[in-house]
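Hi, here's the filled form for the chain we discussed.

Project: internal
Contact: R.S.
Residues: 448
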Amino acid sequence: MPLRVASHPAKTISATQAAAMVRPGMWIDYGATLCQPDVFDQALAERKDELHDVKFRSCITMRPRAVLECDPEGHHFHWFSMHFSGYDRQWHDKGRAHYLPVNLGEIPDYYQRFIDPVDIVVLKTCREDEHGFFNFSASNLWHRDIIERAKCVMVEVTDGLPYVHGVRNGVHRSEVDFVIEGDHQAAPALPQPSATQVDVAVGQLIAAEIEDGACLQIGIGGMPNAVCEQLLHSPAQDLGVHSEMLTEGMVKLYQAGKVTNAKKQVHTGKMAFSFGLGSPGYYASLHRNPDMACLPVQDTNLPHEIMRNHRVVAINNTTQMDLQGQAASESDGFRHISGTGGQLQFVRGAYASEGGKSFMCLSSTFEKNGQRKSRIALSLTPGNMVTTPRTDMMYVVTEYGIVNLKGKSVPERALALISIAHPDYREALTRQAYEHRLLARGVSFSRH
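And the returned structure, exactly as it came back:
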């Protein structure tokens, strides 16, 4: 792989010395998930009063960031994220965090073509290995693409992250300008919410559609995780994994012998993923495990890479769908919730895969301000972002059933989606669909 050449041999310095290199107006890159730095972040926050207009790029923040906590009004530091965690979302609600719209698998190209070389990239990594590499742990993503054009590269080393095998999953000492000793705290855990009855019902419906040898991509959330739980008890065998995120449920399937990766066409025998988050036990299962392959995100998420495996099954979650099949999965009106992530790319890659299937799952209802509402609606909430267009939608699943929208006209789509909406809302949805010419009068779509 191409290596950046540092301007001088890597120097070990303190976090305070590293933070002293930041100047007003700089762009600082904190990377994503497990690689976001902690001791550097704290040292930089302590310089707050000396700085202004310092901008950070990040993704899925797993711990509080000192540069945000110390500057709640945003007089000194500004936060930009490519995918929100719950923590990022809280700061967005306060007007302090901002979203970069991206397809996650394209981000490496953005750093190579559209984003100016960052002034400083500082990443938390594993300690240098026997080959001189600082491993990115379970967070490969686009870190190498930032590094290759960065003006200054710093690593904050720790003993608290699992060492994870992969492809281009690290930075060599010769590419690094400065090394900072980290605090060695354990990798941040991702809470695993208990599955609801609705999650279980959806999980059962999808698990029944998964065949032997299927290659799984599963998104984040209780509902997709419920699919993994149901697969533990299904007859499906020799499953594979090729996913943006490696979830806790996938690892449980691997440990139970349900996932062998033996039938995959690409990275055969390996759990292929770009990043992972989970419990301490989950991280322990990844540590130096030769069955794991943590890959750059362009290798996991680009549709032409996804489709190389056969029988790809993409399972993702959405929060609202209109009667034509548009999925809004990342916002609540103008309030940003998460991000596009890899949803659209996996929907497209799974469809292009030989024998592939894409499932979009959602509960039929939700509660807001004490009122129950249907997630399937005539039209999307004003301000909601379309994550997956109607033209890409394949299977849609609620606790009331599965429908396939491929090859369906607008009236057929509306009827299909109304059939899996909550029964309390079907009559109103049907009336609205007629009023807005989504349903054709006098036409029957029943088979003879």
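Let me know if anything looks off before we file it.
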